[in-house]
Each structure stands twice: as C-alpha cells, then as structure tokens.
Amino acid sequence: MPRRSICLSVVVAALVLGGASRASANGAYSHVHITQLALAQLPPGELADLFADPEMVAAVEAGSMFPDSGYAASDPYGEIVHWEPFLHAYLEDLHARFAGDYSSREAKLRIAFMLGFAGHAFVDQVYDTTLLERAAEMGDREIPDLSYDQVADYFLTIDQGIRFTVDDPYAPYADLPAIIANGPDAHAVTEAVIRDGMSRMSSLTHVQSNPRLVQSWYLTAWEYGPFLGTHYYDARAVGSVPWMGGMLVDYWRVLAARAHETDVPSRDLLYRSVPADGATNWNVDLSDSHAWGRISLFFGYAVDRDALASAISLRGSDGVAVPTTLESAYGSVDCSLVHVVPSATLAYDTTYTLELAAGATTLFGEATDAPIAFSFRTRCAAERLSECPPLPDPLVVGPRPEHDAGVPRLDAGTPALDAGPHAATGGGGCSVSHGGVALGGVAHGTPASSVGFALGALVAFGGVRRRRARR
Length: 471
Hints:
Layout: H1 3-17, H2 28-41, H3 46-50, H4 54-72, H5 77-80, H6 84-98, H7 105-129, H8 131-137, H9 148-151, H10 153-159, H11 176-182, H12 191-208, H13 211-224, H14 226-231, H15 241-260, H16 265-268, E1 270-274, E2 279-282, E3 295-304, H17 305-308, E4 312-316, E5 324-327, E6 334-342, E7 351-356, E8 372-378, E9 438-439, E10 442-443, H18 448-462
Parallel strand pairs: 2-8
Antiparallel strand pairs: 1-3, 3-6, 4-7, 5-6, 7-8, 9-10
Helix pairs in contact: 1-18, 2-4, 2-15, 4-7, 4-12, 6-7, 6-11, 7-8, 7-15, 10-13, 12-18
C-alpha cells in the first residue's frame, strides 16, 4: 500500500475520534454487531425466515446505524429518531402503505430497517444505565477529549477480532423526510441530508474495522476503562454486547407484532425484567451497585415514566408494599426502560413480587386489560450462605488480553492489509458484501474525488453527541 495512503488513513482515524466530547451510548460498530448477535439467536419463525435473505440482513444492519447518522450529518433528526414518537410515526406509515401485507420485497426491507433503528434506540437506554454506569462505579474514568462511544467499539475490533463494514446502506430515503416531519417534532430534513449522514456512517465502519488504525485508541480505552473492557463482551454482564443481543430478540418479537397489528399490550408491554421471573440471590439494597441493583422493566412500547408510577407495586411475601421510586435513561420521562428503586432495604431470603396493574398505558394510549407480575427471591444473609444457593462470582476488572503482536502498529512501515472482505464473526453467518480493502474509511480503488467526501464525513462525526432526555 502506498505510504501516502497510510498517512491519509492515520489522519482520517484521528479525525474520527479527535475533539469528541464524552458521550453516552454504544458506538455505531457495536450497534451493528449487537444486531448481528440478535440475528444469530432468532428462533425458527417469521423473523428467522425474513433474515434468511442477505438483503434483509443488510437492511437491518443499516437500520442499526440510522439513528446516529443524524449526528454524523449534524442534523437534529439524529436525536429525534432515537425515540418512540418516530417509531410510532414509522409504524403508522407502514400500516397505511402496506395494509398488513408485508410480502413484497420493499415491505420486508422496511420491516428490517425498522427493527434495526428501533433496536438501536432501546440498546442505548440499556447500555447507558447498566454496564456503562456500573463501569463508572468500578472506577472507570472519562477519557479526556475522546468518546467512549467509539473507543469501546475497539474492544470488538481487537479483543474479539470482529471486523466488517456496512457499504451502500439501505434506507427508505425518499419517504423518511415525510415520516420525520409528520411526527410530533415536525422537523424538516431533506433526503440528501439523510443520505449524507448514512454515507458518513458507512465510511466510519471502514475505520472502525481496521485494527491497524485503531490500536492506540484501543489501548487508551483499556487504560481508562478496564472494567468496561473486561466485560464489554461478557454475556453475564447486564448491558454487555452479547446480553443486549439476546434482549433484542425479545424486543423484535414485540415490534413485529406491532407492525402486523397483532400485539397484545397485556402480553407485550413488559417483555423482560431484571431480575427475571423466578430469579434468586437478588441483592437486598444498592450498596453493591446502584446500576445493577435496581429492578429493571423492559417495555415493548414507550411509556410515560411518571404516569406509570401509580401502576407499579412491589410487595414481599407478607403482602406489605415496599415504597419505590422510578429512574430512566437521561432522566427522560418518555422511555422504554424503567428502573424501579426500592426506598427501603429488602428482607433477606424473601420472595418479592412486582406487579404492573391492569390499565397501565403506553405513550400512545394502548392499555393492559390484566395485571402483569413477576417474582424473585433475595439472597441470604452472610451467616446463612451455606444453607442457600451459592452467590455468583462478582464481576471484577481483568487483565487486558495480550495480542499486541498480532496488531501492526501505525508506524510499522507499509505491510499490506487484508485484501479480502471482512466477514462479521460471531454473527451466525451474517456478513456484508464489500467492495475492497478498507483504507481508513476509503475503499481501495475508490475514485480520488471520494477521498475528500470520506474525510468530511468523518470530520463531522468527530463531534460526537451526548444523548439527552426526550422530555
């Protein structure tokens, strides 16, 4: 590879990360891979059949990048499409456009794209208030002038060897401006701006997938975030990449039902909880961890957190109610994930039941017609541990994996990069078709006129955003 191309790649990589403020949420690369992990876990059925088509796989991967494309294009649509009102408007458009018949290629593409962007939005709420918050509790520090969004992605690129790019990303470009404008934000954006944002996201994956370019930022990520690095790909850790892949499978089931208008709020409103129904060894207070000590409710529709408070009750086996407060990501009232925080210490070795009363409503008025409940049992006191189920091993900081020798340094001369397409590992056979080797965001063979575009795309994405409350 010519020396000039290496230098250009280094500049592009620096522009991707340089000058970015600390931001919440997963990076684009992680979002795509979480989607790939969900695809690998789909049970037999309608969604598995849909994603047997590689074109639909590409569409859901593109959808998983879409919410952040607005930030890349420096347009407010990026924040807007992270939230339920946009998803609601998109579903209304699906219902009006296809009248429940999703057998056409275009209808299937739009369903796949929706699963991607809606999953991205939910994953942000989960990751930010679970694993990322727990990492801060464990002493991980903010990185000066860098964003954890992107540098954590390199735990995947280098520690897990996961490398892919997303090229020519699908989106229903012509219709997205109207859907965004018809939502409650009434924001005006052009098709050209959305295309620009998605192109920039595609360019970003070319940098993120290249271990040669990202090694120094990877080492910085481990220096400042050793707990996050240890457990980013640990399925035991709530909010980790594999954990959220499993969560998406459940959420997609609800979204598919909403698309077909076969959803049942009493079944689909609360689709997952932490602790799960029947769980044991739950902590009695938040002294070990606030992030992982709260009771977390995962909703298949967005809710008004404050309006929901009166519908939630937590009771011990004696029937006495435990007072609680509710928390959510970014302090947002409109949310899809609600954390229930007991205001009193729970009793040891006791069964508790959390109930969501009949009549609980979603943000857009769907209501349950029956109560939804689950139960869990707290851990035993220290003096009785020998009589009780063993406690799980605590998750602690581990050593950084030793594989530097396999990652060429930026100043190591001009070794050739892998000239073949990068298959996405860990994605159950999911992969993306590539047009050539990635040279820091510019595909080999890309016309020279495209180099400036790639640079501009990555410059714009360098100023990563901080997620904010919906209201």
